[in-house]
Amino acid sequence: MSDIVFLAASFAFFFVAVLYVYGCQSLKGGGGNA
Amino acid sequence: MTANGWLQIALFFALLLLAAKPMGLYMARVYERKKTWLDPVLGPIERLLYRMTGVDASAEMRWTEYGAAMLIFSCATLLLTYAIERLQHAIPLWNPQHLAAVEPYLAWNTAASFTTNTNWQSYVPESTMSYLTQMVGLATHNFWSAAVGMALAIAFIRGISRRESKTLGNFWVDLTRGTLWVLVPICLVYALALVSQGAIQNFKPYDTATLLEPQTVTAPGADGKPVTTTVTTQTIAQGPTASQEAIKMLGTNGGSFFNANSSHPFENPTPLTNLLEMLSIFLIPAGLCVTLGKMVGSPGHGWAVFAAMSVLWFAGVATCYWAESQPNPLLHGVNQRVAMSGAAQSSGGNMEGKEVRFGVANSALFATVTTDASCGAVNSMHDSFMPLGGMVPLANIMMGEIIFGGVGSGMYGMLILVIITVFIAGLMVGRTPEYLGKKVQAYEVQMSMLYVLIFPLVILGFAAVSVLIPAGLSSLSNHGPHGFTQILYAYTSSAGNNGSAFAGLNANTHWYNSTLGITMLTGRFLMIVPMLAVAGSLATKKIAPESLGTFPVNSTLFTVLLVGVIVIVGALTFFPALSLGPILEHLLLRSGISFA
Question: Å from A12 to nearest chain B CA?
Fold first, then answer.
């Protein structure tokens, strides 16, 4: 059971991290110039 | 402190200075895919690897693709290591001690630890990991995680040097070339050098030695009552140590083959290996300063960054050496200073937790180097340092592992702080900041601040929760400020991907294994993403010609400003926490108060 939890948690973390990549990219459009 | 001690510290720095330039120029050639003397041997292997994996070496990646490839690779290797740890009992290969499967929480923590280049170890390696797990599960990560860090640093440098480009290179090519051209060749020679000095390399079952004097040991039995036994033999662990030791230091990994880490004579047998091990921690990070200067076309900028790192390194080692040269005031009764100064040339000082072969100077230098970089190997126990001596490793990590830093991670972490420095300098003179001709605008500053803020958030958040709940406090060996420092150090070391420990905390619990694992993953990957975003954004910009208003980033003024920004952003973020830990402990110790 623990194995499934840790496998799922690992996948979830990296999935969120990939989403975070594209989230950071999407912020680029909204940023103004300093 | 002694002249001998200072001389050894000066020798270390002189050798580092000599090695940095050739190493940096070589790495620049490797990553710019220029000819090197290893091409005839490694070129065919590289092409074969690309054919086998279907990698198009000429394809370029945007920062998002580069980041996604890195995350997918890291996820796959994390799961591979987890599987090996959980199945090691079922694989008959290279498990002569018939060690059992690693428990799930510990296996996950260790997989996250080695994937992130942290190498935090909540376990005793020689009684937990089979030779197969040590080599295939862990040592391979030492190469991969180091090569990933170097690839990311090179991607950032390309972001600075390229003009109006949408891409940062190819992650798979950078990963392969860093491993084949840099890490593997050096480790081959390095491991043989360690063997020549006495480090072991074998696959034998553990030896058993008969003690000259039997020892009587009293320990709690199964029913909790004390049981006294007489011990007549000692198990002496064996294994393929030298091969793991080489990449452990060169890749700033720090995860040891034996629990005693680099204080174990099989890992670090002589003063020469001690010097080599310290040098190899800084070799690639120092070389990357030269690589930066070469690739961006401003060697002076690379040396200015090197100078900032050197100033902070020296401040750390001088403070640590001074603190550890003091005797513990609570041991005046046994007159430790006299006891430790039996020989006229002996330094005295705090020898608790130190290997007598290395003494105070080399322990302080090793502790500073291993925490300036994100290595985490130790040749002395940081938990036993004097409060201010122990604060140095902690503060080094808190500054973001950018004082030379981890392989690659130190360079890109430092470059984020360079961006912030240039931004602040721009604010001071009231013009749009430029970094090597590229305008630093809102997006780069937002992403840089995201990078900077994640680090204290994860450290202080988990440390605060841990001091409030029984699961966090139950495995502490000390109370009061020292116990707080043990918890703070664990999360700082994990978020900084350092891996060294204030060993008084038993972290092999469900709470620490899971939260430290999350901290390591967050401290690595959630900081890499905004860093790559900055690199990707910089790559798209034009390079403006220098003018009178351009802030020169190859000057002494730049170095001074950069050091100031690092100290303010890094150290002062954590000053309240440090004042509750080592600073308070120092003051109480001076008043004669300690905490058991």
Answer: 10
CB contact under 8 A, A2 and B105: yes
A21 Rama sector, left if φ>0, alpha if ψ -120 to 50, beta otherwise: alpha
Q: Chain A: nearest CA to B156, how far in angstroms?
A: 15
Mean pLDDT value of segment B91-106: 87
Pick among A24, A27, A28 to test the B interface (most B CBs inside 10 A)? A24
Mutate to test the interface with A, among B108, B148, B168, B537 (most CBs of A within 10 A): B108
Strand partners, B220: B226
Task: Please judge whether B442 and A33 are an interchain contact, meaning their C-beta atoms are less than 8 angstroms apart.
Answer: yes
Strands B438-439 and B434-435, sheet pairing: antiparallel
Q: Please give the Cα distance from B517 to B569 (Å, whole number).
A: 25
Helix, strand or coil for residue B417? helix
CB–CB of A25 and B445 under 8 A?
Answer: no
Query: CB-based burial of residue A7 (10 Å sphere; 0-12 exposed, 13-18 middle, 19+ buried)?
Result: middle
CB contact under 8 A, B530 and A24: yes
pLDDT surpasses 70 at B455: yes
- Which chain B positions have a beta carbon within 8 Å of A14's beta carbon? 71-72, 74-75, 525
Which of B68, B521, B533 lies at the smallest CB-CB distance from A13?
A: B521
**Tokens standing for residue B203:** 């696959």
Rounded to 5°, the CA angle B302-B276-B5 comes to 90
For residue B438, list its beta bridge partners.
B435
Q: Where are the domains of chain B?
A: 3-204+239-590
The answer, for A14 touching chain B at a CB cutoff of 8 Å, is yes
| Separation between Cα atoms, residue B496 and residue B416, nearest integer Å | 15
Tens of pLDDT along B113-146?
Answer: 999 999 988 888 888 999 999 898 899 999 999 9
Distance, first Cα to last Cα, chain A:
51
The whole-angstrom separation of Cα B523 and Cα A17 is 12
DSSP state of B257: S
- For tokens 């750390």, the residue is B316
Whole-Å CA distances, B65 to B271, B274, B407: 45, 41, 22
The number of helices, as runs of H, and strands, as runs of E, in chain A is 1, 0
Cα distance between residue B377 and residue B355, in whole Å: 14
Q: Going along B397-555, which residue ranges are E strands?
A: 434-435, 438-439
Beta strands in B221-259 (DSSP E): 226-236
Residues 6 or more apart in contact with residue A8 via CB below 8 angstroms: none
Q: What is the mean pLDDT of residues B249-261?
A: 90
Q: Could you report the predicted ipTM of this complex, rounded to two decimals?
A: 0.89
